[in-house]
Amino acid sequence: MELLDRSSYYRAFQSHDARFDGRVFVGVTSTGIYCRPVCPARTPRFENCRFFASAAAQEAGFRPCLRCRPEIAPDLAFWRGTANTVSRALALIADGALDEDETGVEALAERLGVGGRQLRRLFQRHLGASPLAVAQTRRVLFAKQLLHDTRLPMAEVALASGFGSVRRFNETFRKLFDRPPSALRRRSGADTSARDGVTLKLAYRPPYDWPGMLAALAARATPGTEWIEDGVWHRRIDADGAQGSVAVSHLADRNAVAVTIHFPSVKALPAIVARVRRVFDLGADIATIDSHLARDPKLAPLIARRPGLRAPGDWDGESREMPLDDTAPPAWRPWHAYAAQHLRMARHG
User: Which residues of the chain have a pLDDT value below 70?
Assistant: First the structure.
């Protein structure tokens, strides 16, 4: 979806406004590259800019910038959907629903209880891109992050990113970047398997109340499955007959978390990362949430005391604790989990 308020977004790029990071990307017609607002490169001329909020930037023919790395922007904009069907579809795509067979849109639509044409129409309306374009962008950007940040062999990067073969993986990168995937690697050293552990950094929009999140996770932890040690959250993973683990630590100076995954099936990496994002509520627009909650005179002092307090998600689903009842005004209902979290932390210190 190309954004029309070009003057406002251009000012955000001129000032490198981090508040827009992940919300909007600029496609530069003179270079064929799309960037984040915080890109350190010289701001392009206004007439050379097109602005996007989704995977449409890549579908429009732009390739991701190698300097600002759109794949590590907080809460990548193309994952957000305002329709419930789109949101459910995005979660299934994150789990690899369109990785095996690019003719699988009809099967995905059937799982969601809609027709294929209706699903494509919803994606165009809310994201400005087709389901296949979203899946392709997800694959490319996740592969790009693995190339930059890990020493996984090329075959494992291809499989982890949902490419059906190494040949297809190579062809996609040559077409998009005019170079092989190996040319995007920044560090030398011996390859390491996913079995040896993969560490990725996942960004969020500050502020983030890390102690509050750990306290909430500790209160609901299942013994033997989840635990917290020295400020690091750990979880055992058991999926498809395989076992592994994930550990999440806080990188406060980078507005990110470090996720270390040990799991024998490299194909499981995207789904594990998606679950970590959900558990730690990394996609929350916390500034907007806090500003809404602060309108309530009882919550305002709690917000001021604990800015960035988030509602943890569930590992196996999208549910959150929602202890506030439905007597609250309708406009407040989307914020129940966050309000409840502030009230719990206020009661327990």
Answer: 1-2, 4, 55, 76-82, 100-103, 187-191, 193-195, 317-336, 343-349
The whole-number pLDDT of residue 214 equals: 95
Measured between alpha carbons, how far is 11 from 167 in angstroms, rounded to an integer? 41
Residue indicated by tokens 């011996």:
190
pLDDT digits (tens, 9 = 90+) for 252-270: 999 999 999 999 989 899 9
Task: Establish whether the linkage from the previous residue to 180 is cis, with ω within 30° of 0.
Answer: no
Burial of 148 (0-12, 13-18, 19+ CB in 10 A): middle
Pairing of the two strands 63-64 and 33-35: parallel
Contact 303, 341 (CB under 8 A): no
- Rounded to whole angstroms, the Cα distance separating 194 from 258 reads 16
For residue 69, the model assigns a pLDDT of: 92
Integer Cα distance of 241 and 307 in angstroms: 41
Which two structure tokens, joined as six digits, stand for 131? 């389901």
Confidence at residue 79, expressed as pLDDT on a 0 to 100 scale: 60
Q: What is the pTM of this model?
A: 0.82
Nearest to 309 by CA among 339, 349, 332, 334: 339
| DSSP result, 158-196 | HHHTT-S-HHHHHHHHHHHHSS-GGGG----S----GGG
**The pLDDT of residue 319:** 38
- Enumerate residues 6+ apart whose C-beta is below 8 A from 177: 63, 183, 184
Q: Note whether 257 and 201 are within 8 A (CB).
A: yes
d(CA 40, CA 45): 15
196 close to 245: Cβ distance less than 8 angstroms = no
HSE (CB half, 13 Å, CA atoms) of 301? Answer: 3
Instruction: Decide: helix, strand or coil at residue 86.
Output: helix
* pLDDT at residue 144, as a whole number: 94
- Asked if 76 and 22 count as a contact pair (C-beta separation under 8 A), the reply is yes
Beta strands in the chain (DSSP E): 2-3, 25-28, 33-35, 49-52, 63-64, 198-203, 226-229, 232-239, 242-251, 256-262
Note the pLDDT of residue 348. Answer: 56
Q: Taking the CA atoms of the chain, what radius of gyration do you get in angstroms?
A: 20
